[in-house]
Design brief:
- InterPro entries: DUF2950.
- This is DUF2950 domain-containing protein.
- Keywords: Signal.
- By secondary structure, this protein is an alpha+beta fold.
- It has 2 domains: 103 residues, no CATH class; 151 residues, no CATH class.
- 28% of the residues lie in helices and 19% in strands.
- Helix 1 packs antiparallel against helix 2.
- The two termini are 15 Å apart.
- A hairpin with an 8-residue loop joins strand 7 and strand 8.
- The longest helix is centred in the middle third of the chain and has 38 residues.
């Protein structure tokens, strides 16, 4: 599977459908060459010709990251080629053949950059990165819970410890002190932000469809019977699609709740992967 260049490197590609006239080329190679020159020279006028009049609205206030420009220029010099399938072409750059999510399409007047296609590809790749990050974070959570149990003979019921205590998976470590089992990212500073586009919540029970059957993880106020975690997109269809669950056995399950994802995920109180859930083999 080929690596993909990140959109943080070239934020100008975050564009919606544009109605403005764009420049056409005889070949996709000519279009790619013009784009590379415009990026390297940070030529606003040429980028407008290539991408449409509204591209500036989607740049951060400080403009294109100079390091991103340097990275693209370096990779372009190492290697660049066009990968074409029928009337759609992509630019691949660098020794690892990174593919820009900026399709070049053939129309009646020639080849041009497809801004609608770019927006779709950007969204798809962003969702994929968020979902993979959520899966990796859930595995890290399992490791952290096992570490916490070794220290306390019980599992943690919250991500962040109470002030001055070590009753959660994260606490600020003093100089020379071993770090806490988990970092603070699962509980963002601002409510609703999430972590890599996902919300996370600890589950304290499991249902009859889980291995070992139905049971409560809590005994006399302590979580000793196991643990589970659910993760769901902050904004369905934009920051993620799948909802994930994991328990102490480190097996991840996923489902797609659709537009009602937030409501359905928040209603789940047990790790109970039924027929609507599928195992994730990662």
């Amino acid at each position: 599977m080929k690596n993909r260049i990140t959109l943080s490197a070239l934020p100008l590609l975050l564009l919606p459908v544009l109605a403005q006239a764009q420049q056409y080329f005889n070949t996709p190679e000519e279009a790619a060459n013009a784009f590379a020159v415009a990026i390297t020279q940070q030529d606003d006028a040429e980028l407008t010709n290539l991408l449409g009049n509204d591209w500036r609205e989607f740049l951060p206030p400080e403009g294109v990251d100079p390091q991103a420009v340097e990275r693209f220029t370096r990779d372009w010099k190492v290697s660049h080629r066009i990968v074409q399938k029928d009337n759609v072409a992509h630019l691949n750059v660098g020794s690892e053949s990174w593919q820009l999510p900026l399709p070049i399409v053939k129309a009646e007047n020639g080849w041009r950059f497809d801004m609608k296609g770019a927006a779709d590809e950007i969204l798809t790749r962003a969702i994929g990165r968020n979902e993979l990050s959520a899966i990796q974070a859930m595995h890290a959570y399992v490791d952290a819970q096992h570490s916490f149990y070794q220290m306390n003979q019980e599992y943690a019921q919250k991500f962040v410890s109470s002030e001055g205590k070590k009753d959660g998976l994260y606490w600020p470590a003093e100089p020379g002190e071993a770090p806490s089992p988990l970092g603070p990212s699962f509980s963002p500073v601002q409510p609703g932000m999430g972590y890599h586009g996902y919300h996370f919540r600890i589950i304290t029970a499991q249902g009859k469809r889980a291995e070992e059957g139905e049971k409560n993880y809590l005994q006399d106020g302590k979580m000793v019977g196991g643990f589970a975690l659910i993760a769901w997109p902050v904004e369905y269809g934009k920051t993620g699609i799948a909802t994930f669950m994991i328990n102490q056995q480190d097996g991840i399950w996923q489902t797609d709740f659709g537009p009602q994802t937030d409501e359905k995920a928040r209603a789940i109180t047990r790790f109970d992967p039924g027929s609507e859930w599928q195992a994730v083999n990662l």
